[in-house]
Structure formats: C-alpha cells, structure tokens
Design brief:
This protein is mainly α. The chain contains four helices and two strands. The chain has helices spanning about 10-15, 25-35, 35-40, 45-55; strands at about 60, 65-70. It has a two-stranded antiparallel ribbon. The longest helix has 13 residues, at about 45-55. The termini are far apart.
Length: about 70
C-alpha cells in the first residue's frame, strides 16, 4: 500500500482540528488537503487507510460515529 501521508504531523490535523468527522468527511478533507494525493488515491484506498488506522488504535470512533485520535496516539 502506498503511503498516503506527507510530512509527520500534517495528517494528524485531518482528525484533530477540533471538529468531529465521520469517514465521508475525512475522505473529503483528505482530498482537499492534497490535490496530488486526491488524484492518486481512490475513495476506497483512503477508506482502507482509515480502517488501518482504526485497527492499529491510532484513531477510534467516538459515540457519535466520528473519528478522533486514540489516547495513545496523542
């Protein structure tokens, strides 16, 4: 799987900017964040990476179904 992220810390802002986001919003924000990556990665690719981040406890779903950084990722 090709790396979606850029410099360390930049992707963190997609999840941690004070606004809760669901998977659709994360995909949209990712595409706005980097036009180059939006052209290279499909929605499916991005969703697979979101799932990976959740599986590895880097992000988690809150009670409302929005993503947040997991406590150990802060």
């Amino acid at each position: 799987m090709e790396k979606l992220g850029g410099r360390k810390g930049n992707n963190r802002n997609l999840v941690q900017n004070g606004v809760s986001k669901n998977s659709v919003q994360l995909v949209d924000d990712f595409k706005r964040w980097s036009e180059d990556k939006a052209n290279r990665f499909s929605d499916k690719d991005i969703l697979e990476c979101i799932a990976y981040l959740e599986e590895t406890s880097i992000i988690s779903l809150d009670r409302c179904g929005n993503y947040e950084l997991a406590g150990n990722a802060l």
